[in-house]
Design a protein that fits this description.
Pfam families: MmgE_PrpD_C, MmgE_PrpD_N
CATH topology of the largest domain: 2-methylcitrate dehydratase PrpD
Distance between the termini: 42 Å
Number of strands: 6
GO molecular function: lyase activity
Order of helices and strands: HHHEEHHHHHHHHHHEHHHHHEEEHHH
Strand order of the largest sheet: 4-3-5-6
Strand content: 5-15%
Family: Belongs to the PrpD family.
Number of domains: 2
Protein name: MmgE/PrpD family protein
CATH superfamily of the largest domain: 2-methylcitrate dehydratase PrpD
Radius of gyration: 21 Å
Helix content: 40-55%
Organism: Cupriavidus taiwanensis
Oligomer: single chain
């Protein structure tokens, strides 16, 4: 049988009391982080225009977070997914990489409002853990196919989104496979928006989240989808993964549903491939060095890091997405300012000549062929100081990863920055406390009330 049957039957049979405490901890932290990112992105470029453009299709029962009223489930899920991903501050699975909660959570919350208004916290956390685990499992089994131009967050993450909603609705495996089949017929996602620095990049996960809501509705109506979702002649594996897919990676430990424990939360609002370089830039700053003290920084990273974030940075023409996907810019900011925050990714901040000129003229980025092509670490800086001194510093782990996890205090600081940036009326401790209350079975409506 197609692997879709295993994914479906496992997802709908998961129970809260069988999840590891560590899995629940990671799911709760991921939920706090993701909702904070969504509230931070409410006023990001493109989102007000999107809310206006989609309003013509009428109201509905699902909240558009941040006090923007209600919309139909597909539209609300779309808009909320855009805000969650808009600042590129949402979580990643560093081994793929992909954004998991950003693909799973917006549709799941819309589905709570539409089909499970009485949903308690433990049921919600179980469905979320199932979805995040499924997204990561598919992403790791297939791996990115960047050379073909697929956006791997989008094509893999949508599988997890279907599984989460199936668990929430307490479906059987057959209906879930139908929904996965419908989603296969709609799966797409190009990396060209990143290559061109287009704001469309932040809309891509949302496009797929909206499609998941539609796929689930079709399956609920009893309309059958393709059954050989993954292993069919034109299934996911052949179509999106060039026939190369590790089925054992899907099967291994699937009953534990514990991959959320391996998800990384971002300490900086930029592409994850910039994070290890930022860590090193902050290390230089802590040593008292500034741009005026440095003649040149030669940065050695993986081939995929060069592809994603290694392009030349021109502060005179760069947009926000260009800055979010630039090692040169983020390193220059970290070195000069001692932090990389949401406010560093505005049009005004990007035009800072001192930061921009340093990024363009005194930072070089090259691929180290001895490193794993997809690796985020190790990263090395060869630093030539203005006084003739040479420094070599390296990063072997990335801040926010499972091996270097953000503390509760660091996560709270991030939430505070996010809520302030989004001009939210929600208090950080109020949001954190409400999400933690889900572990005790408090209704999910207690969280929804805050974000809505």
């Amino acid at each position: 049988m197609d692997i879709a049957n295993l994914l479906a039957s496992n997802a709908v049979s998961r129970e809260y009391d069988k999840l590891r405490d560590e899995t629940i901890d990671a799911t709760v932290d991921g939920l706090i982080d993701s909702l904070a990112c969504a509230l931070a992105g409410l006023h990001a470029p493109g989102l007000p225009e999107a809310r206006s453009a989609l309003a013509r299709w009428g109201a509905g029962d699902c909240s558009v977070w941040g006090g923007f009223g209600h919309a139909s489930a597909p539209v609300a899920a779309f808009l909320n997914a855009v805000s969650m991903h808009a600042l590129d501050y949402d979580d990643t699975d560093d081994k793929v990489p992909l954004h998991a909660n950003g693909m799973v959570l917006p549709g799941l919350i819309a589905d709570v409002e539409e089909s499970r208004t009485d949903c308690d916290g433990r049921e919600f956390l179980t469905a979320l853990a199932v979805g995040v685990d499924g997204a990561m499992r598919i992403g790791r089994a297939g791996g990115p196919k960047g050379s073909r131009g697929w956006n791997y967050s989008v094509i893999s993450g949508s599988v997890g989104a279907v599984l989460a909603m199936a668990r929430l609705r307490r479906w059987n495996a057959d209906t879930t496979v139908n929904a996965l089949g419908h989603q296969l017929t709609q799966t797409a996602g190009s990396l060209q928006s990143i290559i061109d620095g287009s704001v469309a990049k932040r809309f891509q996960p949302a496009q797929m989240v909206k499609n998941v809501v539609m796929s689930v509705a079709l399956a609920q109506a009893g309309i059958d989808g393709p059954r050989n979702v993954f292993e069919g002649k034109a299934g996911f594996i052949n179509l999106y993964q060039d026939g190369k897919f590790d089925l054992d990676a899907v099967r291994a430990g699937i009953e534990r549903c514990d991959l959320p424990e391996d998800l990384s939360l971002k300490p900086y609002p930029a592409c994850r491939f910039t994070h290890a370089p930022i860590d090193l830039a902050l290390q230089l700053h802590a040593q008292g060095l500034r741009s005026s003290d440095i003649r040149q920084i030669r940065i050695r990273v993986s081939g995929q890091a060069v592809n994603m974030v290694g392009r030349k940075f021109d502060y005179r023409s760069a947009g926000v997405v260009d800055a979010q996907f630039s090692i040169a810019y983020t390193v220059a900011v970290g070195l000069e300012r001692g932090a990389v925050r949401i406010g560093d990714f505005t049009e005004a901040a990007i035009r800072d000549e001192r930061i921009g000129a340093f990024a363009a003229e005194r930072i070089s980025i090259e691929a180290d062929d001895t490193l794993p092509f997809l690796g985020m670490v190790p990263v090395a800086f060869d630093v030539a100081l203005s006084n003739g001194t040479q420094l070599l510093i390296k990063a072997d782990d990335v801040c926010g990863s499972p091996g270097k996890r953000m503390s509760a205090l660091q996560l709270r600081d991030k939430v505070i920055d996010c809520l302030a940036s989004g001009r939210s009326a929600v208090n950080a401790d109020e949001l954190i406390g409400a999400v933690h209350g889900l572990r005790d079975g408090k209704p999910f409506s207690s969280v929804l009330r805050l974000i809505a």
